[in-house]
């Protein structure tokens, strides 16, 4: 009887030792809240960064205009820039043409 009991206790001990219990098996509430706060904050941090970069760019353009009598200097003409073999279906300029930022590609007569 004691032999059988010994075998049973050894088997039970082996089964008990083979299963491991981890303390971090399931994410706790702290980690879920931390992730939610991070995801909530990301867009607002990016918006502030873009606003600052655009403000710096606008002040730089304003400074260049002041140095050149209120007009931006001419951009150099290179053969590989603004090359148009034929017009787009909607005209010579790009689809989102902005006269303040892009060069007008309408052919001069």
Question: Topology as H/E string?
Answer: HH
Note poorly predicted spans: none
Percent range of helical residues? 40-55%
Helix count, per DSSP? Answer: 2
Q: What's the N-to-C terminus distance? A: 112 Å
Oligomer: single chain
- Secondary structure class reads mainly alpha
Mean pLDDT: 83
Largest sheet: none
- Morphology call: elongated
Beta-strand residue fraction: under 5%
Question: What's the count of strands?
Answer: 0
Rg measurement, Å:
35 Å
InterPro entries: Cyt_c_oxidase_su6a, Cyt_c_oxidase_su6a_sf
Keywords: Membrane, Mitochondrion, Mitochondrion inner membrane, Transit peptide
Subcellular location: Mitochondrion inner membrane
Structural notes for this entry:
- The protein has 109 residues and is an all-alpha fold.
- It has a domain at 26-73.
- It is built from 2 helices and no strands.
- It is elongated, with a radius of gyration of 35 Å.
- Its main location: mitochondrion.
- Keywords: Membrane, Mitochondrion, Mitochondrion inner membrane, Transit peptide.
- InterPro entries: Cyt_c_oxidase_su6a, Cyt_c_oxidase_su6a_sf.
- It is found in: Mitochondrion inner membrane.
- One of its GO terms (cellular component) is mitochondrial inner membrane.
């Amino acid at each position: 009887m004691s032999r059988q009991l010994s075998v049973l206790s050894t088997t039970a001990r082996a089964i008990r030792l083979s299963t491991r219990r981890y303390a971090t098996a399931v994410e706790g509430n702290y980690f879920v809240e931390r992730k939610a706060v991070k995801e909530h904050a990301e867009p607002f941090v990016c918006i502030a960064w873009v606003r600052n970069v655009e403000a710096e760019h606008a002040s730089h353009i304003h400074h260049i205009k002041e140095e050149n009598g209120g007009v931006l200097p001419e951009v150099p003409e290179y053969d590989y820039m603004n090359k148009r073999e034929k017009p787009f279906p909607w005209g010579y300029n790009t689809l989102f043409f902005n006269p303040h930022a892009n060069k007008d590609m309408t052919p001069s007569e």
